Amino acid sequence: MSLATSTTLGAVPLASGLTQFRVWAPHANSVAVLARELEPAGDGFWGGDVAASPGDDYRFVLDGAYAWPDPCSRWQPEGVRGPSRILDADAFEIAPGPELSLDEIVLYELHVGTCSREGTFDGVIPRLAGLRELGVTAIELMPVATFPGNRGWGYDGLYPFAPHPAYGGPEGLARLVDAAHREGLGVVLDVVYNHIGPGNEALRAFGPYFTDRFGETPWGEALDYSQAGVREWAIQNAELWVGEYGIDGLRLDAVHAVEDDSDRHVLAELADRVRAASPGALVISEMGPPDFRPLTDWGHDAMWLDGLHHALHVALTGEQDGYYADFDGSMRSIAAELARPEGPCIVACAQNHDQIGNRALGDRLPAAKRRVAAAVVLFSPLTPLLFQGEEYGESAPFQYFTDHIDPLIAAATREGRHREFEFAGFAGFSGAVPDPQDEAAFERSKLTPGNPEELYARLLGLRRELPRELEVACEEQARTLELRRGRAMLRVDFAQETVELDA
Question: Which CATH number fits domain 306-339+350-466: 1.10.3540.10, 3.40.50.1360, 3.20.20.80, 3.40.50.720?
Fold first, then answer.
């Protein structure tokens, strides 16, 4: 489904053999593309219809001197320093997706580059049938926007409208969404609107995307959503995924770092426009602190919250450094997280990319501890998320890896990673932290798939049958929990690290 309107940013092919170009460039006195001058359209926007076809490459030329890729490029086949390419999204053949309901959804987070040996969108497709049979209802892709180099987590994307070429580009993503829908699975996509990755000189050339009014985010300068062009850049990106690719939901990364002092918060407007573009699409936010504005003020459907993960992790490992400092490892703390009134509007996990990958070695919980944590999450009334491989006890780590093409950024990333680990049992061991620029960190993180453990299959099967109401009894001295939902009872022993399920 095309989003072509007179206000759509980027390059949109028209039926007449022309392509509509529109860009926000308030810094420029003139803008040209393919040797044609664009016309000013007010508020720093420029536009025009130019003779061009899908497959043609282009750059915007600012003030007759500087040629840059399109900030809203749909396709960067040669990476972040290559030209943009006109894409005809109407050529995609994507089957309709399932209706996703928070009452039934089970999310499976995956990283396209490490989920298969191929490291591509097509490489994920053979896994889909097994995930559906296990009880997963939607895959959740870590960010796929074009970032520097070939390998990375995706959170430092520079061209958020363009699926990463190393993964298979736009056509590869369309094939994956189509295949997932034909298996009855939804697709949720992780998107990043709190910062732009380093090496963003091209974006800066067009306009004032950044602001220091709120200070910096943990990952760089804050985006300035008081600027109409920045606001449209983010919201139209969200509309593109649910419109042109048929994505069934968006997971908005670290929204606590999205500052906006406009009358209407940008993330509230984004949710409205996503639903206008695709009424069934879910909007899920990741929130660091227990700040429920996504649910109470912005109209989002659900939010990631780390509380249950952290309570379980401290109870199982005793680690209380860093972001675990506010958790005491008690059974009461776990019971409190399970009793949150938001219920299925909270996405909870025993593992995710952050909680594994942001450890120095990317190590996962040992098998017994993993099963205890997973059992509590999957039996809970919260919305569960599995991380790739946990269902069969993946032994490979999930490490932090990058492929920055700028030597200075690569060196800064390497140094910053070593400085980061002064908690969680790694104080004094920074020398053991893997070099994120070393391809070996990426290769070590690739999955070696196996058969799901019975516990996961049983618990996911039960979720479809049991009432949502949860009764919790805890014995602090014995370090046990008993959870009841209807006819089913889960007994979890944190001291012995055992799980007993009666259903």
Answer: 3.20.20.80
